[in-house]
Sequence to fold (317 residues):
Amino acid sequence: MDVLKIKNLNLGFQTEAGFKPVLYDVFLSLKKGKTHALVGESGCGKTITAMTILNLLPKTAQTTGGEIIFHDQDLLNFKKQDLEKIRGSKIALIPQDPMTSLNPLYTIGNQLLEVIEKHQELSGKEAEQKAIEALEMVQIPSPKDRLNSYPHEFSGGMKQRAIIAMALACNAEIIIADEPTTALDVTIQAQIMSLLNDIKEKMGTSILLITHDLALVGDTADEISVMYSGRIVEHASVKEFFDNTNHPYSKALLKSLPTNKGEKLAMIKGQPPSIHQTILGCKFHPRCEFAMDVCSKVVPDLKEICPNHLSACHLNK
Fold:
């Protein structure tokens, strides 16, 4: 069952040079109790897609089409005050940088209690107990004492756990994890992803995992959507994706992963286009080793090449 469905989402930014499209017909569905990974190079539109779900966009952003369906309602039509009731309670965000995501002037307890009191309508001892339970769930030692700690007294991994605790305290149905292991060492990365997996399995929480780390996806996700320059170019179950990778960009990403054989890393030639560049046809064609004449003229449709495996490439007949 889909708990969130993005359909044909189009979005751009007003700039001094005029309106610049950023997202093109983005399609993505998030199933209950599953992890859906959204992957691609930096600047491809992953975070913008996530921020559109919660309407945490700058004033220059403008949606020009599409729907974001949550509980049979289009979030794009929600008023600000109505969306605020969902943001943090039903759909929670784990931001990119755990080091700067907590207010340094307030204790961890203050910040947890603020979220609980706003979204759970609890106060006093009940709210405090809920906060302690949330910290226990994310395996922070001495949770009652840690309520009085300030963010600078927490390590990077503990800060990330505290942010996850805020989502758990409100029983969020969906967690958007935007590069949740950024700035953390490898051991802590594994612990954070293990924690998110436990939450998914025990509570039936759906997770949208935004990352550029395909190795992480292989270990933790159920489905994957690959984004390039604002478009979804491939979608499949994780097993199908790694067994039968289809799109040339997806193949190039996999080739660039380090191996245990000490081989030289493969590189994708060129750079991803900026929003100020105009590229006709498939936006990946200037960097694609399989590009044909049609690729520079016609945008390929996202087609089903086998059950639940979609790809947008002219090589698919």
